[in-house]
Amino acid sequence: MTTTADRSTETSTGAPGIAHRLAEALEPFLAGPLPVRLRCWDGSEFVPPGGAASDFPLVELRSADAVRRLLWHPGELGAAQAYVTGELDVPEVDGWDLDKALTHAFAVSRERGLSGARMRPRALVEAVRAAVEIGALGKRPANPATQADVKGRLHSKLRDRSAISFHYDLSNAFYELILEKNMAYSCGYHATPEVSLEEAQVAKLDMVCRKLGLEPGMRMLDVGCGWGSLSLHAAEHFGAQVTGVTIAAEQKKFIDARIAERGLQDRVTIRLQDYRDAVPPAGQEYDAVGSLEMGEHVGQKNYPTYARVLRESVKPGGRVLVQQMSRSGKWPGGGPFIQSFIAPDMHMRPVGETVALLEAGGLEVRDVHAMREHYVLTVAGWLERFHAHREQLVAMMGEEVYRVWELYLVGGAMAFRDGRMGVDQILMVRPGGPHTLPAVRSF
């Protein structure tokens, strides 16, 4: 019979190594053997029973700080902190990569019913004893430099500006290496899996403009305009007069430069403005309003305000399109990693709840278009560019930022692939005036 001790290498002194001791201490928390091959900073290695080493992903703990982080922040946050700092790594060996390793870990967690499981006090005491034995008990390591530190009242204008700046003002050059030339940072529309990332984003932008019924001379508001992909496309290809609003200063600089390059100064205006201040005076409402993946950032409490801004910004009978991510479960912000390293204060909910909030805000929902599978392909395109530009990205932003984004993109693709997150286009009209939506869906 093979035991965990039999499958663990020893230290140079012949004593059982750290890898074995950690695997032993973790068994009660995992309802079974550690499901990964573990290599620790003392050179010891643990291989789960029941297979060869190559049957399992390799996890390397390169420092006792990796264990300290997990003791102070058990679960996702501690593991993410250790990964982005390089104290924990998942090397690409034996056909395993980060995506495949995380997929394996999620599958084991589901099979063993680990979500929400409560640990016995005796197991906790044993874990602390193991930490003492391997020299991993100590004060909490400092948060990684890439971890957000957003202060102030939740979803106040000042805090929202800080949270958005943390993510979107990272570096325009950084995003240019990941996104395609339109700089569309939202789900594309992939007619087939073979279409390029750029083609999928153009198809999405075309579809949004058609759904909004844009025609030359129509006035459109782009709420949360990002790097201007929709604003510029609507003006350049549909002849719209566009006003875009963003609270990310670097984005505005980028779009203003593109407006000048394309000679669109008479058709596109970008404001550095909070969405709550974007409502035009009565009688000056826009013909159409678009908002692509911005509603996730307004928060649960402020979503009715967001819905009101959309309604009051468009003329009676005018169309509004929101493209927004959805999520169920106990982490509406996307989970500890996303909330701490990517998008502080983000809030998602099931699409039905979002539809109800938009209806309560006075908009008539006419169509809900699910696009979850498309996001898997969009993120795959971003990942391909991300990996292709690794050296440039690391030189520009540092290894830690690269590791944050690698974990973000890989984990995001998995969430959409596995159905833990979705994305939808919600098309609406403002009641009170005639609308031109056809009775038969044409898109």
Automatic annotation (TrEMBL):
SUPFAM superfamilies: S-adenosyl-L-methionine-dependent methyltransferases. Keywords: Lipid metabolism, Methyltransferase, S-adenosyl-L-methionine, Transferase. The keyword Lipid metabolism applies. Coiled coil: none annotated. InterPro entries: CFA/CMAS (IPR050723), CMAS (IPR003333), SAM-dependent_MTases_sf (IPR029063). It holds the Pfam family CMAS. One of its GO terms (biological process) is methylation. GO terms for molecular function: methyltransferase activity. Gene3D superfamilies: Vaccinia Virus protein VP39 (3.40.50.150). This is Unannotated protein. It comes from freshwater metagenome.
